[in-house]
Amino acid sequence: MSSDGPQDHQPESVTEPASESAAEPAEETQRGRRENTERIALRVLNQLNQVRREREQEFAHAADGVLPRESRDRPRVPYGIDVASAWAWRLLLIVAAGWVLAKALGHLQVVVIPIVVALLISALVVPLVNLAERMRVPRSVGALLVVLVVVAIIASMLTFAGREVAAGASDLATQAAAGLDKLRSWLQTGPLHLTNNQIDGWLNSLQNALVHWSKDGNPVGKVTAVGSIALDVVAAMFIVLFSTYFFLAEGSRIWAWIVRLAPRSARTRLDSSGKVAWISLTQFVRATVIVAAVDAIGIMIGAAVLDVPFVAAIGVLVFLGAFVPILGATVAGTVAVLIAFVDHGIVTALIMLGWVVAVQQLEAHGLQPFLLGRWVRVHPLAVILSIATGVIVAGVAGALVAVPLAAATNAVALHLASLREDTDQVEPDAAV
C-alpha cells in the first residue's frame, strides 16, 4: 500500500503514542534501577577514596618523619578490612538496638497492640469522619458516631455468627460422631488395616495426655492466669475504643506534637515520612478489607452450594482471618473443609478444599496485585517473615499487625531513599 494516503498516516498517529505510553513504565523502571546502582557505587567509591586519602596522608607524614603517635602505635590494616569492620560494628549496633526495642514492645504488648489496632481501624474509617466534617458536623461528634457504628457492625456480625453456631451445634455434634465412626471404619478397612486395639490404644493415649495436661499445675494458678488474660482482653478493648476515637478526632494535633519532639533539622523529614506511612497504611487496610470481603463471599458461596452448615459463621471467620495475609484466610478456609468433611464426607470436603484454593489463587494473583500499588506492595517473603516475627513477639495479635507495619516501613524507606537521591552529590576527586 502507498504511504501517501490519509488512511496510512492515521494509524501511525494512534499507535505511536500508545507504544510510547506503554514503554514509559519500563523505561522509568530501568532508569530507576540504573540510578540506584550508580548511587550505591558512588557512595562506596567516595568512602574508599576517603580512606585512600587518609592513608596517603599517613604515608606522607611517615616520609617526613612526623607520623602521628596513634598511627605509629597501631599496626597497618588494609583499608578494605577497615571499611568492612566499620560497617560490621554499626550493623551489630543496629541489630542490638532492634532487639532491645522488640523486647520492650513485647513487654508492653498489652498497650502497643491495641494502639496499632486502633491505627488500623482509624485508617479504614477516617474518610467517614472527613465526610461528616464536610457536612458541618463537629469532628469530635463525627468521630464518636463512627466509632459507635463500627462497634455495632462488629457486634452484630459476631452475634449473628454465634447464634447460627449455637442453633446447629447439636446437629453438628451428631454428624461429627457419625463421621468419626466412618473414619474408624476407614482406618480398619483402608490401606492402613489398623486393628481395634491399635485405634483404642491411640485414643486412650490421647485422652490420658489431655487429662494429664488438665491436671498438671496448680488449679488456682490456672484460674488466676485465665482471669489475668480476661482482664487484659477487656483492657485492650477499651484502649482500642478510646485510641480510635482520639486518633479520628485529634489525629493531626497528636502527630504535630510528636513532630515537635524531634530536633528541628529532622522535623521536615519526620513529618513527610509520617504522612507517607499514613497513606500507605490507609491504602493497605482498605485493600485488605476488600480482599477479606472477596475471600469471605467466595468461600460462603462455595459452602452454600455444597450445603455446608454454618455458612455465615464461616464467612465471618474467613473475613477476620484474611487480615493476616497469605495464612489467615487459608487457615480459616480449612475450618470450612473440616465442617464439610464432618457433615457430608470426604468427597464434599475435597470439593470444598478445591474451592477454597481457587478463591485463594484468585485473591493472591488477581486481586492483590491490582489493589496494592507501589508504596504498599510487600514481597511474599517479607510477608511471611513479618508474620513469623509478629507471632514470636505478640502471638496472634502480632501476626495481625505485622504486615501493615511492614508495608508502612517499606513506604517510609522508599520515601527517604527518594529524598536522599536529591542530596547525593559526587565529590570532585571521586573520579578514578
Automatic annotation (TrEMBL):
Residues 12-24 have a biased composition (Low complexity). Residues 1-11, 28-38 have a biased composition (Basic and acidic residues). GO terms for cellular component: plasma membrane. Residues 1-38 are annotated as: Disordered. One of its GO terms (biological process) is transmembrane transport. Keywords: Cell membrane, Membrane, Transmembrane, Transmembrane helix, Transport. It is a multi-pass membrane protein. InterPro entries: AI-2E-like. Its main location: membrane. Pfam families: AI-2E_transport. It comes from the Bacteria. Signal peptide: none annotated. It is found in: Cell membrane. The keyword 4Fe-4S does not apply. The chain crosses the membrane at residues 79-102, 108-129, 141-162, 223-248, 284-304, 310-328, 335-358, 378-403. Belongs to the autoinducer-2 exporter (AI-2E) (TC 2.A.86) family. This is AI-2E family transporter.
